[in-house]
Amino acid sequence: MRDQGQVETGVVDALIALEASFASLPDAELLVAIDELAARRRAIDAAIVRAAAEAAARSDHRPADESLVRCAGYGSVERMLQAKIGVRWSEAKQLRAVASATSEMVAISGGTIPIRYPEVAAALAQGWLSVPQAHAITSGLDKHHGRASAEDVEDAERLLVSVGCGTHVDDVEPAVPETLTVLAKRCLDHIDPDGDEPRYEQQLADRYLAFTRSSRGGYDIRGHCTDDQQEVIAACFDAEVKPRRVVFEDACGATDEPVLDADGNPIEQPIDDRTMEQRRLDAFVAIVNRHAEASAPRICGEAPTLTITVAADVLAGQPATTLEDLPTLSRTGETVPVSIAARYLCDSFVQILVQDDAGQPLRMGRKRRLFSKSQRRAIVARDRHCRAPGCTAPPGWCETHHVTPWSYGGDTDVDNGILLCQHHHTELHRGALTITRAPQPTITEPADHPTDPSTPPTTRGRRPRTRPRRWRVTSAYPRRHRTRTPLRR
Ligand SMILES: [Zn+2]
Ligand SMILES: [Zn+2]
Q1: What's the 238 CA to ligand 2 centre distance in angstroms?
Q2: Residue 423: what pLDDT?
Q3: Which residues 6+ apart lie within 8 Å of 340 measured at CB?
Q4: Ligand 1 centre and the CA of 213: distance in Å?
């Protein structure tokens, strides 16, 4: 249940007028002051809603040359609200929508149309509900489109208002607008005589997924799915996008402690500055990739294979002499950077067709270039997760990179392999990360038989059961040029 403010009105007035400072308030009073300020904000917003309704009445039913907002130089009530309050367009629309849902309207015939949502209007006027909460309730219930009875809609409105104010028996706190939106939909599903079937059918009919060639290169992805389809996709993405932050400890007890410089500052900073949206797309591609490798339907026993054609010289770092030398995707004929072809060559189901000078395909089957299952197991046992500093992507999400590229004669053996997640693997081939030889740890064996029998047995040093790591991944640039919002969540 909301408190209508317990702090002395004078104290809050002084705070608003900058005559007092929040720094002087003890913790408990600061929270009460925020409650009080929020209550005032709701009261002011409710007054703005009533003013907006009046402005709309003086604009909508008058000829254009007498319309209040037009005479004031605005195209609509929303534009006027946006300019005067300084809010986003969506917020101005929200104010206008709540104003028309909670005020009496004048019909074209001249009569009065009663308030559509009187309970919401009352709670808003008394400062119990905020405008976004009122909007969640009214816009949610508006979707019944006349299919439910007026009494049922009233009952639903009463329930939602009580939940929004925090007065419902089950509530601890007033429900936030997001909760009210979900609850309003649930109410409609309940009171609609047809149930939720028609709305679901519409969602189902509207579903689509489209890839369209973008004018700036690459593809735009657009789509629509049903609630349950989104749930499945989101659950799958969550696991990919938010990797568990775990501290790995191997058999010999070594943990992934950050490496410190002479002043004790960590040298290897986490170097994943992808936005949540970028991570989501990477996750989508990774999921499709894994499916293609493991369980996609086979055509004549063959996994779906994408072919990249590239000249051997170009892959080895020589400039391309003809257009055909560039790495080319077989399906679309689009060219891709050499670094990307090189990444696929390391560890992917993608078939790389390397051609010699005469354009004849060289015998470079995927079998020899890819790490075998047992090699990969050994690399996983040693590396345990993506080796990029700060990245803990587990082995299942990682590709195996050839430290000395396979096209440069690097062997497909365990010592030449390193685990990297798809994102860091790409960054490495693009030159944003480098791999250097890690200093080899020296292992000293303690004496097996203590000479003094009175000495209590000490914990014996154990040999690591896995091979020591030979490689260390570091950022190639001291400070990377950030073009994206850093991920700090
Ligand atoms: Zn690689
Ligand atoms: Zn990584």
Answers
A1: 16
A2: 86
A3: 327, 426, 429
A4: 28
Tell me: the pLDDT tens digits for 126-146? 999 999 999 999 999 988 777
Gap from CA of 402 to ligand 1 centroid (Å): 5
* Cα 49 to Cα 81: distance, rounded to the nearest angstrom: 10
37/147 same-domain check: yes
Burial class (CB in 10 A: 0-12, 13-18, 19+), 174: buried
User: Within this chain, do residues 54 and 71 fall inside the same structural domain, yes or no?
Assistant: yes
Strand residue runs (E) in 71-137 = 105-106, 112-113
Same domain for 197 and 215, yes or no, is no
Q: Say how far apart CA 284 and CA 472 lie, in whole Å.
A: 28
* Cβ 276 vs Cβ 412: under 8 Å: no
Q: Do the strands 328-329 and 307-311 form a parallel or antiparallel pair, or are they unpaired?
A: antiparallel
Q: How far is CA 196 from CA 114, 148, 379, 399, 439, in A?
A: 29, 12, 51, 44, 63
Ligand number nearest CA of 271 is: 2
Contacting residues for 366 by C-beta, under 8 A, at least 6 apart: 349, 351, 352
Quick one: which ligand is closest to 421's CA?
A: 2
Angle between helices 89-101 and 118-125 (to 10 degrees): 120
342 C-alpha to ligand 2 centroid (Å): 18
Distance CA 161, CA 136 (A): 10
Q: Give the three-class secondary structure for 39.
A: helix
- Asked if residues 349 and 305 have their Cβ atoms less than 8 Å apart, the reply is yes
Rounded to the nearest whole angstrom, what is the distance from the C-alpha of residue 39 to the centroid of ligand 1? 58
Residues of the domain holding 34: 9-203
414 C-alpha vs ligand 2 centroid, how far in Å?
Answer: 19
Q: Nearest ligand to the C-alpha of residue 420?
A: 2
Same domain, 64 and 198: yes
191 — pLDDT class (breaks 50, 70, 90): confident
* Whether the Cβ atoms of residue 133 and residue 98 lie closer than 8 Å to each other: no
- Domain identity same for 213 and 165: no
Q: 285: CA distance to ligand 2 center in Å? A: 15
Residue 414 one-letter amino acid: V
What digits encode the pLDDT tens for the residues 259-279? 556 666 655 555 667 888 888
Find the 422 Cα to ligand 2 centroid distance in Å: 7
Q: Does 367 map to a domain?
A: no
Distance 339 CA to ligand 1 centre (A): 9
The answer on 237 and 213 residing in a single domain is yes
Q: Which amino acid is at 261?
A: D
Q: What is the number of structural domains in the chain?
A: 2
| Ligand 1 centroid – CA 163 distance (Å) | 55
The ligand placed nearest to the CA atom of residue 388 is 2
My answer on whether 45 and 190 are in the same domain is yes
